[in-house]
Amino acid sequence: MKKSKTTIKSVSKALQILELLGKHPNGLMIKEISILLKLNLSTTYHLINTMLEHGYVNKTKDDVYLLGYQIPFLNNAFLQSMAPDTMLNHCLEELSEITLETAYLGKERDGEVIIHNIIEGPQAIKVKALYIGYRDYPHARALPKAIIAFWSDSKIENYFKGKKFEKLTESTPSNLDELMKELYEIRKLGYSIDEQAFTKGICCIAAPVFDASKKPVAAYSVSVPYDRYNNNRDEYVEKVCMIAKKASRYLGCSE
Question: Which residues form a coiled coil (predicted)?
Fold first, then answer.
């Protein structure tokens, strides 16, 4: 049986006081707080004193109350929890949880797309010793291609200039022309799929993350055995794209 939601009245009143002080940067006296919030004067006094003791409220020599030094501390902690990397990693954990697969977060760094983080799922499979910081074979892997596809054509050509298109499997693109066809298709679809192009028997689905300027800054992917991929392809695509869009919204990208 579910427990009903409960609130503690004194905590609610204390929070109301903090919110009120936030709207009055020059501060308020206890009587003013009591009147504005329609609180008993004695109750207001005790709540204020408790928050004063813990640093959430400051008192001037004129008995005016202001927000205390603990407020910016909490604000800083909140901003850190909302930092891009933190939110991107939360989304990565969610992707692994909803797919039950090993999930990867890729980011562009120093002109290369690297694996930034990995969360192993309960159905984990080993893919050619991928590790955090891995950047090799971008022409064969869905994760880097999900980002690279949204670069300008000139940037793509410069990036792959001089790079070897090693044929890892029968599905690996062997030259820039073949790769560009794939990248154009990725742009159109909004996601990338590697069907055994990097490792025989393994498929990968990836989707890009965009920032507020609609620049591709990251990508998510999952690696899946071919049989599982073949039976659940659309579901994997839907979940990876959902997480990528969620992360994009966190970064300020409006769809």
Answer: none
